[in-house]
Amino acid sequence: MKKQYWMLLTLIAIALILTSCLPGGGNYSPDRPAGFFTGIWHGWIAPFSLILGLFNSSITIYESFNTGWWYDFGFYMAIIAGFGGLQLVRKKKS
């Protein structure tokens, strides 16, 4: 019973951490746009943003108030790495 309790507590904590900085949640503005590292974070949590965006229209996958190219670079780098796209440049073991 104690192990299940800690597992549930851990899952709740992970869910709160992952959803605390979702794109479109009002954390960013034109005066304080999202940058490169925020783009990486939003790329990593994009699948969660997509699912939660189905139930809450204010949550989006991509932050509209961003710094431009650097945010895009971080976002797409995390998306590609998250779905195994960077495996193309790894050397195969014989």
UniProtKB/TrEMBL annotation:
Keywords associated with the record: Membrane, Transmembrane, Transmembrane helix
Is the keyword Transmembrane assigned to this protein?
yes
Q: Where are the transmembrane segments?
A: 39-62, 69-89
Superkingdom as given in the UniProt entry:
Bacteria
Q: What is this protein called?
A: Lipoprotein
Lineage, please?
A: Bacteria, Pseudomonadati, Bacteroidota, Bacteroidia, Marinilabiliales
